[in-house]
Amino acid sequence: MKLAKRMLFNKRGSLIGAVLAVTIGILVIHVNFVIFQGLFDAIVRDISEYRNGDVLVTNEDDYIDKSDSTIVRFFERISYVEAATPRLSSTAEMEITKNGKLIEKTRIPVVGVDPFTDIRASTVYETVTEGTYVFSRNSIVLGNTVANDLGGAVVGDNVKVMIIDRWGEEQTKRFTVSGIAKSPGGQGFDYSAVMHIDTLRDMTDRVDQTGSIMVKLNDPSKAFEVKEFFLASFPNDDFLAETIEESAEQQLAGFRSGIAMINMIGYFGMMSSAFAIVTIQMMLVNGKTKEIGVMRAIGAKRKDILIIFIFQGMLIGAIGAGVGTATGLGYTIYAKETKMSFNNSLPLEVSYNWEKIIQTALASFVLAIIASLYPSYRATKLLPVEAMRTG
Amino acid sequence: MKALDNVSFSIEQGEVVLIVGSSGSGKSTLLNMIGLLDSPTNGNIFIDEVNTTTLNDDQISSFRNKKLGFIFQFSNLLTDLSVLENILLPIQIAGSNLTSEQDAINLLKAVGLETQIHKRANKISGGQSQRVAIARGLINKPSIVLADEPTGNLDSVTSKIIVDLMKSMAKKLNQTFVIVTHDRQHFGEVDKVITIKDGKAFQGEEPSTMEITA
To answer: So what's the pLDDT on residue B97?
Structure first.
């Protein structure tokens, strides 16, 4: 073992090359994970924070008829639940006039919220970059894009909103713009308008009806339990309840396959580093042909030679896995501490996935050993006399 | 064409035997066969009453390790190891505890290199390397030490030192040495000379008169 170590460490160039190959393989996987898993988690986070919560309750009949306060109170009695809030959605036509002159008209989705519970269950209010969140029945928050579409609506402007109610009648109401919302990454309500839920209920004539209940948990890992408990508690109300993974499945499926592809690229990178190890170890074997011949001549068995080079593979794997993991963790810490963002917009949700970190390090280590098998086998096939003559 | 043909001779314990002959005569091939580095297409080689031609690869390695010592023309020390580690290498390969580091140091003293113990093998001179190779060849107390042109790469003064050292070690340890050389004159008086000519072995230095029964 000492000899294997010396042989390897005395060939510093080869050692550094092999370790670098493993390190880069691991680093690619870590960087991929930080960026793409971080992006995926950031999208999940935003969908959860802005729209679906950790558990989203809807009804088979499109609208929930049970009193929203009853459902909210039910949830808020569960220890895992942080808050719950009702939401109602519709579509509206919106126009803005200035000095009696129509500036712009646009058709947009509108969301009705309960301002008192919404700020506890959602962080949409934090996306209001100008003005304030919905605070009264005639205030409205416009998404940044909507504000632009309306010719540059600003806080304090009056907008006319037309909604077709459940009976097909057009209902019109004037609102004062209380805030403009802009979310990093655009997962918030940048393309919508937010108003008081009771106002939207009035306009759509859906008094006491709710579109969904968004439930925020203090421990998101309990989402399934909470969902099941809720459904079991209201067996006859035709409720549907979904965890964030279920409710956002359609939006996330594409990202998931994208991440799987990126991971594949990472693993191919790791495979490339294995080929680099094979090449470097072949160079080591070729460079030590004479020594192998001498060792065989003085009594080393084929398996002794095999062990020497496999041990070298283990050393390369261990050092490479150590350096690669340390570098990868360094990058992850940097990304987390600097709140790295995607495209200077969406802050990545950087996490330490220890299972994946250990798995990657172990995979690299094992791959380095596997990569050293062929060169080691070649070394055992050298005949002592030939090796000493040609080495 | 046969490199060696109908070769038969025996060597007694403690003898210093020279194998001489012109270049390409087959003397190194003969030494490689005695050293189990090569195998004859026909015939047997007995060492310590073991028919070595019947051994498998692992047994051959083990036999080489325990019963044979090697000294090569270019010493062939492992440059990654120190002088002491080179000498201890056959013991480490054997995984044996029978010979201690102290034995290796004693051998180094015997070959006059006690001050070079921890030097890297590539940091010592050619003559010193060959002395280390002699110590390495002797560390496992082998039945035979096989030396292939041990002075072939040395100047005449150093060659004389190496020859004297081998002869004195042979006498002191009752150690058998089989030495291939083309520098016959360096070795002076030895116990036996085997001359190889055209693949045939003759005992003594005059092929016409020294042929032994094959």
So the answer is: 66
